[in-house]
Amino acid sequence: MEPDFWQQRWQEGRIGFHRDEVMPLLTRYWPALAPPPGSQIFVPLAGKSLDMLWLAAQGYRVLGVELSPLAVDQFFADNGLRPEIHRSPYGVHHRAGAIELICGDAFALDEAALAGCAGVYDRAALIALPPALRQRYAGQLYARLPAGCSGLLITLEYPQAEKSGPPFSVDESEVHGLYDQHWQVERLERRDILADEPSFAAEGVTALSTTVYRLLRRENQRRVVEPGLLG
């Protein structure tokens, strides 16, 4: 799954993963994380998610990263925001108020870029990646987040043989396999949502659940990982 895959999805408007409202699971479970007010929250593979606006409205500083320039431009235009723009080795930074959105490769972000993050919010990033990239994503990008960082992770579970991703099915055993070494993982909810997702049923999917996890970065198991490139 190359970057061109996602660029084409945005250019063709095939962005069924985008929600036109704030994710209810975010508003319900974010208080369970309780990062300090005013702290920075990392949103990987952010798209043009309205969840970033909600986090900013709660008094947080948001650091998002998104590969598609079209998605970044649409986020600011759709919400009437005029960002200040500058470039760095990480990509093209767009900043408006408490929201900074980097147009670039998430895997290029190093520990220095993420050092100020007290929280991470992942609704559609992990499940957007095939297995090999999920390993890199959790083992490399998450490894650069600071000790004590807390996270809210939302996944989907369905019989993978019944549908080709993305979004991909990521079950609880895989979540633990990806994160347990460096994160405490706690499942907060698993809920059947097949009746609410007719597109999945139309493709022949017979079971579909969403699962919410709280993550906490272990204090004593940070390790340095060299940046990689998405692809």
Task: Give the tags.
231 residues; alpha/beta; 9-stranded mixed β-sheet; 26% helix; 26% strand; globular; disordered C terminus
Description:
The chain has 231 residues and is an alpha/beta fold. The chain contains 8 helices and 9 strands. The protein has helices spanning 3-11, 24-29, 51-57, 69-78, 111-114, 131-141, 172-179, 198-202, and strands at residues 40-43, 61-66, 84-88, 91-96, 99-103, 117-122, 150-157, 183-192, 209-217. Strand 6, helix 6 (131-141) and strand 7 form a beta-alpha-beta unit. The longest helix is centred in the middle third of the chain and has 11 residues, at 131-141. The radius of gyration is 17 Å and the shape is globular.
The largest β sheet comes out as: 9 strands, mixed
Distance between the termini: 7 Å
Task: Kindly state the percentage of residues in helix.
Answer: 25-40%
Q: How many distinct helices?
A: 8
Low-confidence stretches: 221-231
Strand composition percent: 25-35%
Give the overall shape, derived from the CA principal axes.
globular
Q: Compute the gyration radius: what is it?
A: 17 Å
- Strand arrangement, major sheet: 3-4-5-2-1-6-7-9-8
Secondary-structure element string: HHEHEHEEEHEHEHEHE
What is the tally of beta strands?
9
The structure class reads: alpha/beta
Estimate the mean pLDDT confidence.
Answer: 89
